[in-house]
Structures are given as C-alpha cells and as structure tokens.
Amino acid sequence: MKALAARRHHPLAFVAILLLALVATGGLYAAFQPRSAQAESYSQDDVDKGEELFLANCASCHGTNAQGMQDDSGNTLGPSLIGVGAAAVDFQVGTGRMPMQNSGAQAWRKPPQMNDEQTRQLAAYVASLGPGPSVPDEEALSSKDADLENGGNIFRVNCAMCHNAAGAGGALTRGKFAPSLSGVESKHIYEAMETGPQNMPVFNDDNISASDKRDVVAYLKALDEQGSPGGISLGSFGPVTEGLYAWTIVLSLLVGCAVWLGAKAK
Amino acid sequence: MATTTPTRPSTEAPEDSGSEGRMLKLGAVGGDWLDRRVSGAGLVRFFGRKIFPDHWSFMFGEVALYSFVILLISGTYLTMFFVPSMDEVVYDGIYAPLQGAHMSKAYESTLHISFEVKGGLLFRQMHHWSCLVFMVAIFVHMFRVFFTGAFRKPRELNWLVGFALMVLGMVAGFTGYSLPDDVLSGNGLRVVDGLMKGIPIVGTYISMLLFGGEFPGHDIIPRFFTIHILLVPAAILGLIAIHMVMLVLHKHTQYPGPGRTERNVVGFPVFPVYAAKAGGFFFLVFGIITLISATTAINSIWVYGPYDPSPVSAGSQPDWYMLWTDGGLRLIPGWEFTIFGYTVSLNILLPMVVYGGLLAFLALYPFIESWVTGDDREHHLLDLPYNAPVRTGIGVAWITEYLILAMAATNDLIAVKLHLSINDLTWTFRIAFFLAPVIVFYITKRLCLAMQRQKRDLALHGEETSKVVRMENGEMIEIHEPLNEFDRWVLVQHDDYRPLKAGKGVSALRAAATSFFFKDQLAPVTPTELREALEHAGHERHKIDELTGGDYRTPDVRSH
Ligand code: HEM
C-alpha cells in the first residue's frame, strides 16, 4: 500500500525528479564507471594471514601458489586463482562452496567454513596475486533508488532461463543445476554475476553495467521480500507443482468427502 | 436399506417402513408439491423418483460438474475486468517491480485484477484451481468408467460424449491460461505455433491464419478470448446436457450386489435423498476449492513478466493436463529432413501421431472391446476391475504411457529435485516409453488373475479363521467361516468368457484377439462346485464339532 501512496505525487514533482535525475546521472556515471579499478584496501597483514589460511585449506587443490593443480590423469583438481579477484573468493568461500568437499558435477552451497574475517583475508591473498573483480561495497548494492522494473527485465532475459523466473532454480545438462536464488545475500548475487561461478556465464560490466547489476540485486531482494501474494507458493515451480497439488491434496479432500457422502447411513 | 425400482413401470408402492419410509414419503410430498405448481407433472415425478446408486466412485462426474459450475461463476467475474487486447501500455499500477514496464492490456488488466480489484486474486485463483480440479475429476471419472466397464452397451455414445468433454476441457484450459499474455503462456503459444508449422505444406498457412499473421501478432488474445469464454463453454454446456440426458435414459450402472440385477437400479431416489446429498456435495466441492484458492497461489503471472519473445524461463511447463503433449517433444531426437525444399519435421510429426493415437485408442476402446468379445448384450451391472484383467491391464498401461509423457515434460524439475542428470532422465523415459506399458500391462493382468483366484477360494471355502484343530489322527484342519450369501454373491456373479476359435465366420484376427483377452480367465464358481465345497465344509465341520463339542476355544482358555 506504501507503493500506492508513493505514486500519488504532485505533477510538478515530475519536473523536479527529472532535474534531479539529470544532475544525478552525471555524478552516478563518474561514481560507477571505473568500478573494476576501485579495489578494497587490504593490509599486508590480511594478505599474509590469507596466505596461511590458503596453504592450510586450499592449496591441496589449487596449488601452493594458487596456480592450479591437476591430478596424474590430467583432471583439474582446482583451477588457477590468479586474477579471479577478491569477489570470486568472497562468493565461493562466503557461500560455503569452497573449500570444496566432494567432487561431483558441481560444488554445492553449504554452511560456510570460514568466518567473515578469514574470508576477507583469503580474498586479500587472492586479490594480491593479480587484478580481478573486487568485493562490491554497500553503495553498489544499495537498493535505495534501484529500478526494479529494469532489474526484473534483465533478470528475465539473462538469468531466468537457468534460474527460473521466480529464481526457484533449474536444471542444466548432466546433473548440473542453477540453484535457487531466494535468501542469497545481495553481495553474493552481485559477485556471482561478476565472476560467473562454474557453469554460470560471467556478466561483466560491458554485458550488464554496475547499475543494472544493482537493479537485478534489488529485484531479487524485492521478490524475496514480497513473498507470494497468492498464498503458499509451492516452491514457485509453476504449473507442475500446482498440478501435483491438485492430484494429491485437493483430490484426497474430494475423495474424503465422496466416501463420507457415499457411506450409507446403516 | 435402499429401495429398488424396477426398470419397467410398476404400480407397486415401495415398502413403507421406519425412517426410510418417512424419507420416501417426504419425497412423494415434495414431488407432489412440485407437481401442482409446475406443469409436466409426469416429468417431475419421473426425475424425482429416479434412483441413483450410491458409491463414492460414482461421484467424480459430479465433481467435474460442480467445478464446471464454479468455473462459470468465477469466470464471469473475471470477464468484467479482463481486457482481451494486445495493445501496448506502460504499467503504472500498484505492483512496484513492474512499474514502467511495457505490456499488453491483457497482461495489465490481469495484474489489475490480481492486485487492485476486490477479491480479484481470489477469483483468479478459484478459476484456475477449479480448472485443475475439473480436469482431475474428469480423468478420475473417465477411468472409473473405464475400469468398471461402464462404457459397454448401451453407453458407448455417452463415452464418446464424455471423451469430447475431456478434449474440450483441455482446449478450455489451454486457451484460458494463454489469455494473461505473460511469458509462460507466450511460450506455450510458441510451442503451438511450432506444432502447427511442423505440419508439412499447410502448416505455415494454418499458423498465419490462427495468429492473424506472423507469431505472435496482435489477434491471438482476442481470438482466444472468444474461443475461451464463448465457443468452448457453450460446447461443454451442450455436451454436458446430452451427457446427462443419456445418463437418465440409460439409468446409472451399479456395482454387483445382492438384489442388483441388469434390470433394476438399487439406490436412493433423486428427490429428496439424492438431491440433498448432491446439493451438500456441491457446497463441499465449492468449499474445498475456495479454501485452496484462498491459501495457495496459482499462476503468479507477475513473476513470469509480460510476454516478450526473448526470455524463456527454466521450468516452463504447461498446466498438468497439457503436460503430456510436451513430453513427446522433449523425448524425440531432433529428426528432420528436407524434401523438395520442404522441411519435414519428424520431431514434431511423430509426437503428434503418438498423441493422436493415444486419444483415438481411448475414444474407440468401447468399440474395440465389443468387437473382440462379440458381446452384444446390454450391461447395467459393472465389472469389478479384477474380473476383466486384460481391460484393466490395458487401462493401466495407457495411464502409464500418459504419465511417462507427462513426466518427460517435467524432466528438468525432476532432475533438479532428485539431483539427477537430465540427459540420463531423457534416456530413461525414452526406454520406458516403449517398455513400461508392456511390463505394467503384464503385471496388472497377473495381479488381477491372482485376485480372481483368491476371491474364488474365498467364495468356495469361506474366510480363514486362523483357528487350527488337530484331529486325533494328527491331521490339522483350519476352521473356515463360510461367507454369508450376500458377500458370496458378489464373488460368483460375473460372466464367463471363453476365447473364440477361428472359422465359422470368426476371422483369425478376432480369434487371436479373444484369446489375448480371455485365455487366462478363471471361470467363475459354478453351482456344482459351490455345492461340493459347502458339503465338504459341512463334513469337516461335523468332524471338528464331534471332537470339540462345538467349543472352539483353546484348552487353556477353556480351563479358566
Ligand atoms: C465435463 C466433463 C464431464 C462431466 C461434467 C460428467 C458428468 C457425469 C456425471 C455426473 C455422471 C453420473 C455420475 C457418475 O457416474 O460419475 C456421468 C456418467 C458417465 N460419464 Fe461423464 N462426465 C464428464 C466427462 C466424461 C468423460 C471424459 C467420459 C469418458 C470418456 C465420461 C463418460 C461417462 C459415462 C460412460 C457415464 C455413465 C456411467 C455409468 O452409468 O456408470 N464422462 N458423467
């Protein structure tokens, strides 16, 4: 209902907004364009601690210098991490995918094994190896004046074919899958787009600009927040789950009534 | 107890006893009241006194009927707000994530109904849920009719009318969920467009004709609107009327039971007992659908977004009753070849042939079966499914094929939920498409025969009591409790069919077909067999009684 009230503005407000927007665009352009260069500052201490952690937890697969490793038959144990950037580490470690446990079709999300501090230190170490996307800051994620419509549109065109329109997840070939996006932290959504984990393509700033990424994040957060206006969402998988529901729960209710009515009053 | 009305007019008044009698009198009074106010008194009496047998499995036709009524009511409400137009507008409604989006008026008005019209979302969800329930009820009803052999003479035509209703239900559903013009329904239309274009030579023209030009065009929504709210419902209503008139003319079938014959119907009179039950049932169905619609989301079109040909979401599936039509397309390899400059898309044509074949088989089954059995009698007593093993097997095999197609259409969801490879699943379904129906047919038939054998034993020897008596010579005899005559009747009443021999006007094909149907059939218990079994049981009983003095308690219990 807040949204409804918010739409009822004075006609002049439009002019004011237009002016503001013009002014803001210049500023925003300056603020957002050189994003990839703007790196988070890590101290040398962070890098050193990160290297320690890396040697203890990651080197077995990624190699002692993060240069990547292969087993005897030439299968990759872990790819090179040089130049993947702090964003990749923050995403992989922050969502619990790394350190990877079992080799399967794909590394799964699990409860993170590193705390925020350790994740930061690991990111600092990997970032020190070569330039790459950095962890997005608050401002890049702020949904304050994000354009939800734009975010939704970009999401439906670029992401829904793998992740489903409601972000409920979907299958890829050979047992790989695009996971559900509900409840994923904003910065991890942003980082996923920037780094393209595993079978997900990389959406760099040329494909989807920084402000578009912010809109996508805001859209996904809005979907999460609004929940399902129609009631139980059945996982948002669409007609199939709805059909199953009709054949199980609704049909048993109906059969129950039919049996009850059909039972002769003996 | 229920009443029996002879099929032929009879002057005998039904027995007047106890509360049942009072109920009947109520019926008579009610009928009389109506008689005096409505001309055509005979007609009213005719309907009011009709007998309807009572069994829960007979109530799914009613569920279909009631959910259709709910569809009409909720649909009427929706037409007051829906705008069947593909003109483009910019959304400025209350749903924030779409503000400023370009969309068709159809989509905009659906958002409006969902978020701004009082009770709009509830009505939308009721309309869609009752559609799903309608189709579920039709399928359950249809297979009740199939497995009990209710489609046999004289009801073959009514089976065909019902079949037409099932197909019309699918058309109604498809045209309905295409109306909101969201991405999901647009994808569905795209598939239909592809199916039509796959027809050699004329395909492109048909598609152009339907869409009024190149897909998606600007005409499809208004056209579907007319089909969906006028043509199809009118056709369904008309066919339901024919279905019901035929039902009344044929009278309802009944399960075999004592006192139930091919010439009577045992049950309750329509007025007042059945009318009260049916009325109550309507409100129950209404209540259940309303409850589900108020609590469970369906077709959240704002998530799918306004139609735009580029995006296709993962997990794009049609409503359940159309799923099977998608399955074949997902299973078939991409077979195509070019001949005289025309592309022949086997990957579209073959699935369509399969779909047509499955439907045609279902529609024609009553005629196929009566040709095989040569059974030209009228049947008003139903078959118990295990007494018709081949028919039951065929029905279960058909359902299996249908399910495999439907599951193939959901292969991506199954893959995600069960963490399987979608490629493996596709291959599994491809193999299952050919093997599963055969295996399932065989297993079902065997199970039916096993049940026949078990029921036969039961009819002859009665129920095992698990009380065993050791005779003086060491022989162990289990005490059997004979069935009462009512229960036994149900087990021994069915017909006996034998395979035909070729020759004497019987073609080899038909002889083979009857042999396929009946060669393993167990003969029902004959009176002689039954007499012998009863005599034997009496004899055994006598021996046991002599030994125990008629007291069947075990010695330790007896000594207390
Ligand atoms: C709009 C859909 C339908 C409606 C509203 C409907 C309604 C009914 C009702 C109320 C009855 C009597 C109660 C009962 O036996 O369940 C009935 C009987 C019957 N229906 Fe349907 N039906 C529909 C679809 C079908 C379909 C799809 C078939 C089969 C292809 C079918 C075949 C029959 C037959 C053969 C009977 C007579 C059954 C008997 O006397 O035992 N109907 N229908």
Automatic annotation (TrEMBL), chain A:
<keyword id="KW-0472">Membrane</keyword>
<keyword id="KW-1278">Translocase</keyword>
<dbReference type="InterPro" id="IPR009152">
    <property type="entry name" value="bc1_cytC-su"/>
</dbReference>
<dbReference type="InterPro" id="IPR050597">
    <property type="entry name" value="Cytochrome_c_Oxidase_Subunit"/>
</dbReference>
<feature type="domain" description="Cytochrome c">
    <location>
        <begin position="45"/>
        <end position="224"/>
    </location>
</feature>
<keyword id="KW-1133">Transmembrane helix</keyword>
<dbReference type="Pfam" id="PF00034">
    <property type="entry name" value="Cytochrom_C"/>
</dbReference>
<keyword id="KW-0812">Transmembrane</keyword>
<feature type="transmembrane region" description="Helical">
    <location>
        <begin position="244"/>
        <end position="263"/>
    </location>
</feature>
<keyword id="KW-0677">Repeat</keyword>
<keyword id="KW-0249">Electron transport</keyword>
<dbReference type="Pfam" id="PF13442">
    <property type="entry name" value="Cytochrome_CBB3"/>
</dbReference>
<comment type="subunit">
    <text>The cytochrome bc1 complex is composed of a cytochrome b (QcrB), the Rieske iron-sulfur protein (QcrA) and a diheme cytochrome c (QcrC) subunit.</text>
</comment>
<keyword id="KW-0813">Transport</keyword>
<keyword id="KW-0479">Metal-binding</keyword>
<keyword id="KW-0408">Iron</keyword>
<dbReference type="InterPro" id="IPR009056">
    <property type="entry name" value="Cyt_c-like_dom"/>
</dbReference>
<keyword id="KW-0349">Heme</keyword>
<keyword id="KW-0679">Respiratory chain</keyword>
<keyword id="KW-1003">Cell membrane</keyword>
<protein>
    <recommendedName>
        <fullName>Cytochrome bc1 complex cytochrome c subunit</fullName>
        <ecNumber>7.1.1.8</ecNumber>
    </recommendedName>
</protein>
<dbReference type="InterPro" id="IPR036909">
    <property type="entry name" value="Cyt_c-like_dom_sf"/>
</dbReference>
Automatic annotation (TrEMBL), chain B:
<keyword id="KW-0812">Transmembrane</keyword>
<dbReference type="InterPro" id="IPR005797">
    <property type="entry name" value="Cyt_b/b6_N"/>
</dbReference>
<feature type="compositionally biased region" description="Polar residues">
    <location>
        <begin position="1"/>
        <end position="10"/>
    </location>
</feature>
<keyword id="KW-0472">Membrane</keyword>
<feature type="transmembrane region" description="Helical">
    <location>
        <begin position="229"/>
        <end position="250"/>
    </location>
</feature>
<feature type="region of interest" description="Disordered">
    <location>
        <begin position="1"/>
        <end position="22"/>
    </location>
</feature>
<protein>
    <recommendedName>
        <fullName>Cytochrome bc1 complex cytochrome b subunit</fullName>
        <ecNumber>7.1.1.8</ecNumber>
    </recommendedName>
</protein>
<dbReference type="InterPro" id="IPR027387">
    <property type="entry name" value="Cytb/b6-like_sf"/>
</dbReference>
<feature type="transmembrane region" description="Helical">
    <location>
        <begin position="159"/>
        <end position="179"/>
    </location>
</feature>
<feature type="transmembrane region" description="Helical">
    <location>
        <begin position="339"/>
        <end position="368"/>
    </location>
</feature>
<keyword id="KW-1133">Transmembrane helix</keyword>
<dbReference type="Pfam" id="PF13631">
    <property type="entry name" value="Cytochrom_B_N_2"/>
</dbReference>
<dbReference type="InterPro" id="IPR016174">
    <property type="entry name" value="Di-haem_cyt_TM"/>
</dbReference>
<feature type="transmembrane region" description="Helical">
    <location>
        <begin position="126"/>
        <end position="147"/>
    </location>
</feature>
<feature type="transmembrane region" description="Helical">
    <location>
        <begin position="427"/>
        <end position="444"/>
    </location>
</feature>
<feature type="transmembrane region" description="Helical">
    <location>
        <begin position="270"/>
        <end position="292"/>
    </location>
</feature>
<feature type="transmembrane region" description="Helical">
    <location>
        <begin position="199"/>
        <end position="217"/>
    </location>
</feature>
<feature type="transmembrane region" description="Helical">
    <location>
        <begin position="63"/>
        <end position="83"/>
    </location>
</feature>
<feature type="domain" description="Cytochrome b/b6 N-terminal region profile">
    <location>
        <begin position="30"/>
        <end position="256"/>
    </location>
</feature>
